[in-house]
Design a protein that fits this description.
heterodimer, A: alpha/beta, Rossmann fold, 2 domains, seven-stranded mixed beta sheet, 12 helices, 14 strands, B: alpha/beta, five-stranded parallel beta sheet, 5 strands, 42% helix
Chain lengths: 313, 278
């Protein structure tokens, strides 16, 4: 797989392209333009960036007000702060008030690695899934990031997007159809399907290749949208393969895995099923890659989990 | 509208507020009565907003941060023709849009509020958009004094001053009481004037239950070019009904049948006196 740039940079580049076409597009930051790779945006479109300082509640409230006045707002802040400190503003000022703010959680999951749990967002899917009127999207590669940001720009409704800051391999061909709420199949398999989201899609795809070489037919679904969940795609792969593994850079609680489990159970599908995510413990210290490896979110780790799961089915 | 006509409206609004709270058997009586005159002057004298121009991007905006005093807002919007006053008979009923805090499901309301400390940031966003686009509208927001302990209010204040939002008018309903007791006993707020000055506002104070004083105050906006405006409206919680005024228990107490009758009798007496003066 050819390595692309960080999704963070794909996001920032996309915003410049969109912002040059629309003077009403605004980026609102909480002292986060550097972390958000938005310095080029600020240089190119200085009148379209609003700084509120380190004040995430205010970031979201102001963004709601700007959106109410017709601005197309991207509120950008590290996912850990945006979705915890400002949770009530997201719930009330954006989602409940139906103000079409695009909330962008940068350096999501364990991207900040050794900075520790203050800077991790392993709760954001869980917290935001319970809020009505908010789409949740975790793009996997540069293409999904660009497509998701563009889709959110056009959506005209509240959207939360989150991604990391490490270079990501290209997973999709240019021109692949992208729609918020519609998963993208990357491989099909009859033994096991890995349903992954965000930056765990790449190791899931690599795992499927390892499994293929070992004679295990493994599918991969990029479930970039956590809400609304593409239940049709989920049910389809669950019926066509003997086991389902979900993979996410999030707590085992309340994220992609539990969302999929709820759908499968309520549709009477009793398949072998495993949630691969960050367990409910003090997260091991280390870089994002080391944390992933510790919890088995690697090509080899996922292939091993998938083999066990499909063997037990 | 003349001062006398506005004063008459305030009395009539207070009657409606008490009637709808009594009918719904729920509501924030004290706070709604304390901000009645402010809303009256804003909607009938100051702001350029009406059912006819509510889609106009240049309309003035009003954000009620102290969302719990929604009965006053519902009453004034009905009188301004956003919906028939009879709609308020559904207050708090199953499937009614007229619930205990403002929502955009109700015509005339700009933003859903109710959790305290939210309105000012939203108002700052609206005012900032007007500055960016060169639009003439102004943004008015009403804060309770009790909610000023929410830190988000001060985050928003810093931003308002930084962006020199002199099109933003923040009104503090300074009635001095919150649900637990006097604000100065719960967690002291004073000196509010010094605090708001330090945060970069042009600060003024007036009797927030005096129609003429409010009219004069709003006519002076912007107080100082390049500074957000802040009005410390010195009000009486429960204003207009002798036995409700300044009583902590009336924060969200509902009048009994007898209390409603006595309150309405007091207000009708005030109404008769004003009509004689007219």
């Amino acid at each position: 797989m050819e390595l692309g740039k960080p999704n963070l940079e794909a996001f920032a580049d996309t915003l410049i392209a969109l912002g040059q076409q629309d003077r009403d597009l605004l980026v609102v930051t909480s002292d986060s333009r550097g972390s958000g790779k938005l310095a080029p945006f600020a240089q190119t479109l200085p009148d379209q960036i609003v700084e509120v300082g380190i004040a995430e509640q205010n970031l979201v409230g102001i963004s709601a007000g700007l959106a109410a006045a017709g601005k197309k707002v991207f509120a950008v802040s590290p996912a850990c702060f945006l979705t915890a400190r400002s949770l009530e503003q997201i719930k009330n000022d954006v989602a409940y008030s139906d103000q079409p703010v695009r909330l962008v959680g940068i350096s999501a999951g364990v991207s900040y690695g050794a900075l520790g749990s203050t800077h991790h967002s392993l709760h954001d899917f869980a917290a935001l899934r319970a809020i009505h009127n908010l789409a949740i999207v975790a793009p996997a590669d540069n293409f999904e990031t660009q497509a998701a940001i563009t889709a959110a720009y056009h959506a005209g409704r509240p959207v939360y997007l989150r991604f990391g800051k490490k270079p990501m391999p290209h997973l999709h061909a240019e021109g692949t159809p992208f729609e918020i709420g519609r998963a993208i199949p990357l491989a099909t398999g009859s033994d096991v399907t890995l349903i992954a989201t965000g930056e765990t899609v790449a190791p899931a795809l690599q795992a499927s290749q390892i499994l293929g070489m070992q004679g295990v037919s493994a599918g991969v679904l990029s479930m970039h949208t956590i809400k609304p969940l593409d239940t049709a795609a989920l049910l389809d792969v669950a019926q066509r393969s003997k086991a389902v593994i979900t993979v996410e850079e999030h707590s085992v609680y309340g994220g992609l895995g539990e969302a999929c489990a709820a759908v499968l159970i309520q549709h009477g599908i009793r398949t072998a099923f495993k949630i691969v995510a960050i367990p409910d413990e003090y997260t091991v210290t280390g870089s994002q890659a080391e944390i992933f490896a510790h919890y088995g979110i690697t090509p080899e780790g996922l292939a091993s989990t998938a083999r066990h799961c499909s063997n037990s089915s | 509208m003349t001062e006398l006509e506005l004063r008459l409206k305030s009395v009539q609004y207070r009657k409606t507020i008490l009637r709808i709270i009594h009918r719904a058997q729920a509501g924030h009586t004290g706070g709604s009565l304390s901000c009645t005159d402010i809303l009256n002057v804003l909607y009938n004298h100051v702001m350029d907003v009406s059912p006819e121009n509510f889609d106009d991007p240049n309309r003035d905006r009003y954000i009620q941060s102290k969302g719990h005093s929604v009965e006053a807002l519902y009453t004034v919007l009905a009188d301004r023709g956003f919906y028939p006053v009879e709609a308020l008979d559904t207050l708090n009923q199953y499937q009614s849009h007229f619930i205990g805090h403002p929502t955009r499901k109700v015509n005339g309301i700009e933003q859903n509020t109710g959790a305290l400390g939210h309105g000012l940031s939203v108002a700052v966003g609206l005012a900032l958009a007007a500055k960016q686009d060169g639009r003439p509208y102004r943004v008015f927001t009403l804060l309770g004094d009790g909610e000023l302990t929410e830190g988000s209010s001060w985050e928003a204040s810093m931003t308002a001053a930084h962006y020199r939002l002199d099109n933003l008018v923040v009104i503090v309903d300074r009635n001095g009481l919150q649900i637990t007791g006097p604000t100065e006993q719960v967690v002291a707020l004073e000196s509010l004037e010094d605090k708001f000055l330090a945060f970069g506002y042009a600060v003024r104070s007036c009797d927030g239950n005096d129609i003429a004083a409010l009219v004069r105050m709003f006519e002076q906006v912007p107080f100082e070019p390049g500074k957000p405006n802040l009005i410390l409206a010195q009000t009486v919680k429960g204003k207009g009904v002798s036995f409700i005024e300044n009583q902590i228990k009336w924060h969200h107490r509902v009048p009994t049948d007898d209390e409603l009758a006595r309150a309405l009798a007091e207000l009708e007496q005030a109404e008769r006196e004003l009509k004689v003066m007219a």
